Amino acid sequence: MQVEISRRKFLQGTVALSVIASSSAICKDTSKQDKMSLGTTKTSNNKDVKLIPTLCEMCVNKCAAYARVENNIVTKLEPNPHFPKSQNMLCARGNAGIQALYDPDRLKYPLIRIGKRGDGKYKRVTWDEAYSYISEKMTKILDEEKDNRSCFGYCAGEGLAEHTFKTFMSNKIGSSNFVNHASICLQTAVSGYALTIGKYGQADLQNAKYVIMAGANRAEAILTPDTMDIFKRTRGRGTKLVVVDPRFTNTAIHADNYLAIQSGTDLAFVLALTYHVIKNELYNRTYVKNNFSNFDKYKEHVLNSEYTPKWAEKITGIPANEIEQVAQEFMANAPQAIYYQGRRSTWTKNDFQLRRAQAIFTALGGGIDVKGGIVFGKKLPLGSHYVNAPLYSNPKARIEKDEAAIIGGSGSWIAWRNMIVEERTPYPIRGMFVYKQNPVLSVPNTKKTKEMFEKMDLVVVIDTMPSDTAIMADVILPECTYLEREDPVKSFPGVEPSIALRKKVINPMYETKPVIEIIHGLAKKLSKPLFEISKKYDEDLQDELEGLSKEEIDELYEDNGYNLADAFEHSQEHVNKEMFLAKYNQEAWEILNTKGVFYPKMLSSFEKIDNNSFRYYKEKDKFFTVVKLENKEDSDDIDTCINPRDIAEVKRLFSTPSKKIECYLENLTKKGIEPMPVWHQEDFKEIPEGKFKFITGRHAQFTQNSTANNVMLLELMPENYVWINEKDAKKKGIKHADLVEIKSSVGTIQIKAFPTDKIVANTVFYIHGFGSNSSGMTFANRNGASDNEIIEDEIEPVFGSAIMHETIVSIRKV
To answer: Over the stretch 786-807, which tens digit does the pLDDT of each residue have?
Structure first.
């Protein structure tokens, strides 16, 4: 069956980017190759048919797939049953990956800007011309900045090749200013759990008996095998699911108990659960005695603060008796009970303390590192790829290091950007390299992000699509899609750990390249000019070079890593094989290369149970409990797979400073952060009369902004609507599909309305991933609204993460 693209019919040949000087074919090519770009799901008996293993890149889960290739055309994507992580599943997004390959708007050739930033006017150039342009600009800037490599910032979206790009910018170029997706995503959740229980962990939803899912819309936002596990068990095998959310979501539909909570009050809810459990001694006292540090301090703090269910009822809107019931049921099912960690953005100013409180509450029942609780699993080893990193004397420290208590290597997107816009940086940020990220639409306060790019002398974007960020660039370098490249081999940790490989399915189309080749070509062009800059300003290097002959200087250039291209000389295929064979034999490599997946005992343990059910590891070989137990005798005696309640009470050594669950983090006090979760009423943002609190979220058919132009997925959801409580809508005369204006302190958008009783009063919501203004995105252009155009640019105080659910807005019918 031929995939038929009906929506707007590609605007009857509208040019995707306004391209000047005989370059109208850049984004719309009427050649025979482009006429095939709609893809097909047609299958045949043609002998030239291949099934090639790959890993999906339509969301962060990276499910395994087989690409059906007929006559060098990908006609179908099918789930790969051999990967424990994806369990023979490929969701709507995964199936739509074929359209990412054949999207007519995809970037096809290197481009250099000839118009104003953001107007989409570019000329087609050769790769060498693009590299030369970047080299000349960088050399001039670094000369003016006396070889401060940190005057160039860089960012990257999540993906298998993110590390390759980061290696180039950090280890080889030498910049300290990396801002990745963590601070607009999971930073507070991951760090809150890691500092409390040693690691973030994974929720073993398949074996849990009781799950509290707060603010996580798993049934709708990300359809993966572990999502299916919880709902299959809820309906069929007895797991109880409690959903806590301001919206009655598709996840809430499946819940045994839905609790409508006021946005921003989750910490009060968790502290009330904790109070009830401690006050009535419902927690696992043996586990706490053996595995908690400073529990007495936490107990005294919670009780003396009187975080009672009655207190929480007034704040959260959840009746006290329901809070008490959840607390009792949770501990009755512990340790196979989980307060689900969450896997999205920072909600409020107290988000870090919320995640700490969640982790401690789950741990009170012993549900850490046990079957049916939060598990850590194991990671299979891989070899390393050596990178010869040069030592530079002049790069400065990252600019926003003092903007929050703990600014790590991933930075704080908002703080970093705002310092540039507000001209508060300790030294100039002159340029930026962007790889597979769209900060214009993914970082709160779109206006400021555009202002940041306007201030820069050089912006380089590596991407597959002409996104809102790409059209702010001076140079656009087109990466091939994930189906056209082999990416770094990856080890996936878990209860059933495995190694998986994304193989190249077809050769790159047009003039696109994988990022490792893009970087290699750019590095060759940059190496000698940048070495000359370092020779001019780097006193340490000058001392080393003094008295050396030309031949000796050339040798130092190679030996000391100043050849920026040396880490990328080999193909990704070569590097992958090298890294794998460093730990495994040739037979194992053949399995990985053929099946796309490898794990020990795979040939003997993999078994098909029924049409859509497979066994990967035998039960005795799974890694439910991996934390070292304090006494070796205990490790020998206890069956960690069968007896989770028994193993929960045994002393173990967690990956924390005290080797225990950390209730009290004394080191935080030195940075002005409270050592225990505390509710501060003044931090809760009240909603003024006639205003609303705006919240946002994900949808299973959309992966943030990267799927915004995918016509297959837009057929399922062509635009986003704003949810508003029916009573609130009636007061304002707003009916279904009315166009409304939503205004915050940082921006204004227009969107269609969806009045519903499935959202609490004084709160509005719409899905992230819409609202592109890029003229190059034919199907995404002005389609719905972008949330970050109205989300205020506030950060939480611990890591500087973006606060996503605290923006106050007004709404009116247009």
So the answer is: 999 999 999 999 999 999 999 9
